[in-house]
Automatic annotation (TrEMBL):
Highest taxon of the lineage: Bacteria
A UniProt-annotated Pfam family: SpoVT_C
Keyword check for DNA-binding: yes
Assigned keywords, A-Z: Activator, DNA-binding, Repressor, Sporulation, Transcription, Transcription regulation
GO MF, one example: identical protein binding
Domain SpoVT-AbrB as annotated: residue spans: 5-51
Protein name: AbrB family transcriptional regulator, stage V sporulation protein T
InterPro entries assigned: B_subtilis_Trans_State_Reg, GAF-like_dom_sf, SpoVT, SpoVT-AbrB_dom, SpoVT-AbrB_sf
GO biological process, one term: sporulation resulting in formation of a cellular spore
Length: 180
């Protein structure tokens, strides 16, 4: 665990302010759920809660099915990190941060599909030179929880209606799973 050197006092209502620098670095936004852990040494640990992270085994199986059905590498992520990958080596993407461009698409609740060569490419994961073919936000109980996508192949393939529909159905299905 890293020491930051920042000290905050608890107010009379039991609240503590998480400094802006830490919120920005850890991508903690207003309204984000946090899990609270304690240990025997008296430490209190705040961790961003990922509802999709709770479904990580299920998400891995679902990514595998998507890859087999669609023929493209499939990726499922929460709002911050990749949590499931199929069709490419997992170590390449698993646990990596999503890109600001994908974050923006999720935040705006937009779908993305590469349908022409003139269109801008979406690099969904920071530091990885791969591009999305189709991406859709996962929405549960009115909140964006993550995204599901196919990655484009090396052949310059454009998204077809079948891939777009498959990813949209996957996003809706995962959203429903999280509501239950």
């Amino acid at each position: 665990m890293k020491a930051t050197g920042i000290v905050r006092r608890i107010d009379d209502l039991g609240r503590v302010v998480i400094p802006k620098e830490i919120r920005r670095t850890m991508r903690i936004r207003e309204g984000d759920p946090l899990e609270i852990y304690t240990d025997n040494d008296g430490e209190v640990i705040f961790k961003k809660y990922s509802p999709i992270g709770e479904l990580s085994n299920f998400a891995s199986q679902y990514a595998e099915v998507l890859h087999k059905a669609g023929g493209f590498p499939a990726v499922i992520c929460d709002r911050d990190h990749v949590i499931a990958v199929s069709g490419i080596p997992k170590k390449e993407l698993l646990e990596r941060r999503v890109s600001p461009a994908l974050e923006e698409i999720m935040e705006q609740r937009r779908n993305y599909a590469m349908i022409s060569k003139e269109q801008g490419k979406l690099q969904p994961v920071e530091g990885v030179d791969r591009y999305a073919l189709v991406a859709a936000p996962i929405i549960a109980a009115g909140d964006v929880c993550g995204s599901v996508m196919f990655l484009a192949g090396d052949t310059g393939t454009m998204a077809e209606e079948s891939e777009i529909k498959l990813i949209n159905a996957a996003a809706m299905f995962l959203g429903r799973q999280m509501e239950e």
